[in-house]
Amino acid sequence: MTSPTWYDVLDVSPDASADEIRAAWRAAIADLDPTDRRFAALNQAAEVLLDPERRAAYDAELAPPAPEPGPAAPAVVAPAAGRSRGVIPAWLLIALAAAVLIVAGVATYVYATQPSDRAVEDATSAAQSAAERAVVPILSYDAKHLDESRAAAEQYLTGSYRKEYDQLFDGIIEQNAPSTGTVLKAELVRSSIVRATEDRVQVFALVNQARTNNKQKTPQIYKNWVTITMEKVDGDWLVAGMDT
C-alpha cells in the first residue's frame, strides 16, 4: 500500500490550483488545535504545494520512474602499446587519492557546520518565547496613545519589517483611530511551531483581539490565527513577518 501524498492530506487533486489548495488547507485547520498531530501535517502539505518550485520538485518525485535501458554491450578497449594489460598508471593513483581526500574534507566540513538538534531546539524555544512577547503589542493600539503603541511594537521588529509596519500604522491606524477612538487589545491564547532552523523560526499563534471605539463601548472579540516569522538578528529574535 502506498503512503498518502500531500495532495491526499489536503484532499485535493494533483492538478488543483493554488487557490483551491489554500482554501482546502484553511478549511482543514479551521477547527484544529495546533497541538493536534494533523495540524503539522496539513501545514507541511500546504507549504510544499503552495510553493511553485517545491511543488514541481515534489510532483517530479511522484512521477513513475522511466524504464531503465537494457544492458549495453561491453566496450572492447585495446591495451595501449608498451603498457601491460590491467596496470594502472601511478599518476592516476595519485589523482584518485587526492580526490578522495578532498571529498572527505568537504564531508567533514559540512557535518561539522550543521547545527545540532540541541541548538535548533534551544533556538526554537527562544524564538517562540520572543514571538509570544511580540505579538501582543504588534496587534494592539490605543487611539489616545498612538506614539506609545507604535514604540511598544517596533522594538520587536526587524528593520525591513518595521518599514511595512510603519506604512500600515501611518496609512491606516493614524488616519482613522483618533476620529473613531478605537482601542484594540490583543491577548495571546496559545502558540505552536510550524517549522524551525537555528536562525529562522515560524510560530503559529491564536490571538484574541478586543476592540472598542466611540460607538461600541462593549468589547468586540475577534479571533485571529497568526503566522509569525522570527529571525535572529545580532543575537536577538525579532519579527521579520506576520501573516493573519
Summarize the structure.
With 244 residues, the chain is α+β, with helices and mostly antiparallel strands.
Description:
This protein is of the alpha+beta class and 244 residues long. The protein folds into two domains: 6-62, Helix Hairpins (Orthogonal Bundle), CATH 1.10.287; 117-243, Roll (Nuclear Transport Factor 2, Chain: A), CATH 3.10.450.230. Helices cover 48% and strands 21% of the residues. It has helices spanning 6-10, 18-29, 37-49, 52-62, 90-113, 117-138, 146-154, 159-180, and strands spanning 141-142, 183-196, 200-212, 220-233, 236-243. A five-stranded antiparallel sheet has the order 1-2-3-4-5. Helix 2 (18-29) runs antiparallel to helix 3 (37-49) and helix 6 packs antiparallel against helix 7. Residues 100-104 and 106-114 have low confidence and may be disordered. This is J domain-containing protein. Residues 5-62 form the J domain. InterPro entries: DnaJ_domain, J_dom_sf.
Summarize this structure as a short list of keywords or feature phrases:
membrane, five-stranded antiparallel β-sheet, 8 helices, Nuclear Transport Factor 2, Chain: A, elongated, 5 strands, alpha+beta, 244 residues, J domain-containing protein, Helix Hairpins
Query: CATH fold name of the largest domain, please?
Result: Nuclear Transport Factor 2, Chain: A
List the helices and strands in order: HHHHHHEHHEEEE
Provide the low-confidence segments as ranges.
100-104, 106-114
Main β-sheet description: 5 strands, antiparallel
Second rung of CATH, namely the architecture of the largest domain: Roll
The CATH homologous superfamily of the largest domain is called VirB8 protein
Q: What spatial order of strands do you see in the largest sheet?
A: 1-2-3-4-5
Number of helices: 8
Radius of gyration, taken over Cα atoms and rounded to an integer in Å:
28 Å
Measured between the Cα atoms of the first and last residue, the distance is: 38 Å
Helix content: 40-55%
Q: How many runs of DSSP E, i.e. beta strands?
A: 5
CATH class call of the largest domain: Alpha Beta
